[in-house]
Amino acid sequence: MPAIANRVAALATTVFSEINDLALEHNAINLGQGRPDFDAPPDIVAAEVAALQDGKHNQYAPGTGTLSMRQAVANHAGRFYNLDIDPKSGVVVTAGATEGIFSSLLGLVNQGDEVILIEPYFDSYVPNLHWIGAKPVYVPLHPPTWTLDPDELRAAFSPRTRAIILNTPQNPTGRVFTYDELKLIADLCIEYDVICIADDVYEHLTFGETRHIPMATMPGMFERTVTVSSLGKSYSVTGWKLGWVYGPPALVTGVLRAHQFVTFAAHHPAQAAAAYALSQPGTYYEDFLTMYTVKRDLMMAALDGAGLKATAPEGTYFVMADFSDVFDGDDVAFARYLTREIGVACIPPGVFYCPEHGEIGRHFARFAFCKGDDTLRAAGERLAQLKR
Ligand code: PMP
Ligand code: GLN
Predict the structure, then answer these.
(1) CB-ligand 2 contact for 16 (6 Å cutoff)
(2) What is the atom index within ligand 2 of the atom nearest the CA of 368?
(3) One-character DSSP codes across 166-209
(4) C-alpha to C-alpha distance for 150 and 27, rounded to whole angstroms
(5) Closest CA to ligand 2's atom 7
(6) What is the pLDDT of residues 278-323, one digit of tens each?
(7) Quick check: 137 and 283 in contact, CB under 8 A?
(8) For ligand 2, is residue 230 a contact (CB within 6 Å)?
């Protein structure tokens, strides 16, 4: 009997699909997967519709992406971060950030190399590393403030370290790393000649005075950083799966070589809409943050009313809540109980940890608040049963 390949045999269905199914089965309010339940801005959708109908975008895009989108990515990096990106040789358009990260690893990391991951980490990183034969080295963030221990970080770097994947603003903790934290990581990258794969998909989602600092802007880091981002979160179009990678041409070349044999090219019509979206005026981003600040406050009030302990996230649309005051059991048991009995779905964060560090996330649940305000209020009413 033919069997499936070893490289996927041990992989379970992703937690996001599992929780979506469970939420559907129990008619739960789904605060699991980070997927807005409201529509994208109509003018951004209209830009894609126009591209679908103009007779110029229904065949393969250039493998690197359309020049207009690459130019828009470069302009965006210049406008927000003062980075000087070459649209011709410093940008690759990918099928979402997920492909951007995989193509970056394929193009920049060798078999046997070590790659540092900050825990909890986004779930696709580890299977990606296994497929390329690289070894993940884990550095946990410590609750309740989700901070790094500088000694643990330093101990993870060695002459075998090829790269670090850094996600800020960070899913699932909502942390936005400070200049000092980034400086610590940057200095180690320079000392050990390490590449940074910066996963900046939540770059526009920071609250209050908090600002996203791209690793590519840290002293000495541009030459050793590829930055990955996508349209999904910033423009509420997670279904489009359109992303990009930018950085110094010497590294982007590696990403491009991999990308051309992973997908060759990404969805063409969305690239026209991306060029439009990336050029939105400042008011777009202000309104976006105003909208999400209301949602974050509703989410925090809901958690508080339920007796769940959480620090308000500095960025992203996720929050990690400690349920130990209201539930006896681990994260998976809590997520199942909450979905089935309370009618609210969340993500058990154990999947974002290596087995040795799973204990750290054992009494936390991740909630996504990229949902309608009324949905968040309704979730709050249901969650209040936990306290009672
Ligand atoms: N990185 C992080 C940290 C994410 O949360 C996500 C969201 N799924 C991705 C990467 C993937 O982004 P995309 O949907 O553009 O592939
Ligand atoms: N980024 C989203 C989340 O973390 C979606 C992930 C996914 O479905 N792969 O919930």
Answers:
(1) yes
(2) 10
(3) EESSPTTT-----HHHHHHHHHHHHHTT-EEEEE-TTTT-B-TT
(4) 44
(5) 16
(6) 999 999 999 999 999 999 999 999 999 999 999 999 999 999 999 9
(7) no
(8) no
Q: What percent of the chain has pLDDT over 70?
A: 100
**pLDDT reading at 15 higher than 90:** no
Task: State which ligand 1 atom lies nearest to the alpha carbon of 122.
Answer: 3
For the CA of 123, the nearest atom of ligand 2: 9
Structural tokens at position 85: 């990106």
Per DSSP, 312 falls in state: P
Distances (CA, A) of 6 to 9, 69, 130: 5, 38, 11
The 10 Å Cβ neighbour count of residue 42 is 9
Angle at which helices 67-81 and 268-277 cross, to 10°? 30
64 CB near ligand 2 (under 6 Å): no
Closest CA to 96 of 230, 260, 282: 230
Q: Is the CB of 243 under 6 A from ligand 1?
A: yes
Domains assigned to the chain: 6-40+283-387 (3.90.1150.10), 42-277 (3.40.640.10)
Query: What is the residue whose two structure tokens read 């990404």?
Result: 266
Q: Which amino acid is at 32?
A: G
68 in contact with ligand 2, CB cutoff 6 A: no
Angle, CA of 268, 248 and 132, to the nearest 5°: 75
Q: Is 161 left (phi over 0), alpha (psi -120 to 50) or beta?
A: beta
Residue located via tokens 């769940």: 308
